[in-house]
TrEMBL record:
Record carries keyword Metal-binding: yes
Keyword set, alphabetical order: Cell cycle, Cell division, GTP-binding, Magnesium, Metal-binding, Nucleotide-binding, Septation
NCBIfam families linked: GTPase_YsxC (TIGR03598)
PROSITE patterns: G_ENGB
Name by which UniProt lists this protein: Probable GTP-binding protein EngB
BP GO annotations: division septum assembly
Gene: engB
PANTHER family per record: ENGB-TYPE G DOMAIN-CONTAINING PROTEIN, MSS1/TRME-RELATED GTP-BINDING PROTEIN
Domain EngB-type G, residue spans: 29-200
Species this protein is from: Desulfurispira natronophila
GO MF annotation: an example: metal ion binding
Amino acid sequence: MEKRISSYHPHKVQFVTSAPSLAHCPLPDRPEIVFLGRSNVGKSSLINTITGKRSIALTSKTPGRTRLLNYFDVNDELYLVDLPGYGFARVSTSMRDQWNRHMYQYLECRENIAMAVMIVDIRHEAQKNDLRMFNLLGQWQIPTLIVATKSDKLKKSQLAPHIDKLRKSYGSKCALMPFSSASKYGIEEFWWEVTKRQIVDANS
Ligand SMILES: Nc1nc2c(ncn2[C@@H]2O[C@H](COP(=O)(O)OP(=O)(O)OP(=O)(O)O)[C@@H](O)[C@H]2O)c(=O)[nH]1
Ligand SMILES: [Mg+2]
């Protein structure tokens, strides 16, 4: 029997660890969702919003806040992983290359990644590094949901045109949804998208 969507909402959320590298990650003993996107786009805020925890993930107005791989456990059955943002202009090229290398290695090698959530700013056109990441995720066969956040910054009438434009850039078949951490818009839809991918066992 299918569970109600609301039953997938997190009832127990815990911070697990901050890992500086692959070697320090927790055992891959449960599926995980990785959250990625450009620096300052709202990844950590989104994790707080969908888990209903105000500040389990640290957020900041200054880009580059999340520098480690931060693990959060949901209901003892799923990891959410807050990754450092990419495309942060104020770090040196060598530092950025090192971050990218780590992240690519992680995405390619971590065996329990069930899904990626790529967060983009709904106000902006598809950015080069987002398109590049989206294509890489496809190559690595990681199912990807694009979450277009900060929708509170747009008028209601602007939402659909912006989503259409993004959909044109990422492909008509991509999974893409509007979201806002500020107005808590899209939480149900987010968990529905996760449920659809059967990451959480419907019979457990
Ligand atoms: N208006 C609005 N502001 C948001 C939203 N989501 C995040 N912000 C703001 O955007 C800024 C960056 O948010 P974070 O969640 O720290 O972004 P991040 O992607 O984790 O940033 P890094 O860890 O530095 O890569 C903060 O000032 C947030 O308050 C949203 O939905 N609406
Ligand atoms: Mg962050």
